[in-house]
């Protein structure tokens, strides 16, 4: 008889895969970014010794952490150069939109909450709610660091990769203020061990 927990996990993974497939119909970049971010999340979580169940949930959350961008105009997502304050305000709504989508699915775990907090910072300067410190799930803190590293080190639709060293310098700069220092240290270890690609990548 199949393990019921394993079967249930498979069903939720299939739901996540379906969401990704729909998003990929209109956005050729974001789902690839999410996949690469998810891979780094798993490596960091494994280094930190998280239980496999929590790692699997984090992986699914990372795979759809930007699902809310499906409602953001592609022209804005792909815009080169500086964006206006109004455009930035619109862009930030992707977090709440993603949470509102995911909370409609009856996940028996905090997947939607992880996504809701992936732009929150330890010092309360993040969005959309300005929560801080221990109010941010560890999985979200891992996702935040991974998201920053992948976003800077990979090619974007509007610019080439800035390089892994620039990405690592950025998380070092924010460590202990915005970013969890234990997560930053784990990420630095994973990259040093060759756990992620160190050059630009395209989806």
UniProtKB/TrEMBL annotation:
<dbReference type="GO" id="GO:0016787">
    <property type="term" value="F:hydrolase activity"/>
</dbReference>
<keyword id="KW-0378">Hydrolase</keyword>
<dbReference type="InterPro" id="IPR003607">
    <property type="entry name" value="HD/PDEase_dom"/>
</dbReference>
<feature type="domain" description="HD-GYP">
    <location>
        <begin position="8"/>
        <end position="203"/>
    </location>
</feature>
<protein>
    <submittedName>
        <fullName>HD-GYP domain-containing protein</fullName>
        <ecNumber>3.1.4.-</ecNumber>
    </submittedName>
</protein>
<dbReference type="InterPro" id="IPR037522">
    <property type="entry name" value="HD_GYP_dom"/>
</dbReference>
<dbReference type="Pfam" id="PF13487">
    <property type="entry name" value="HD_5"/>
</dbReference>
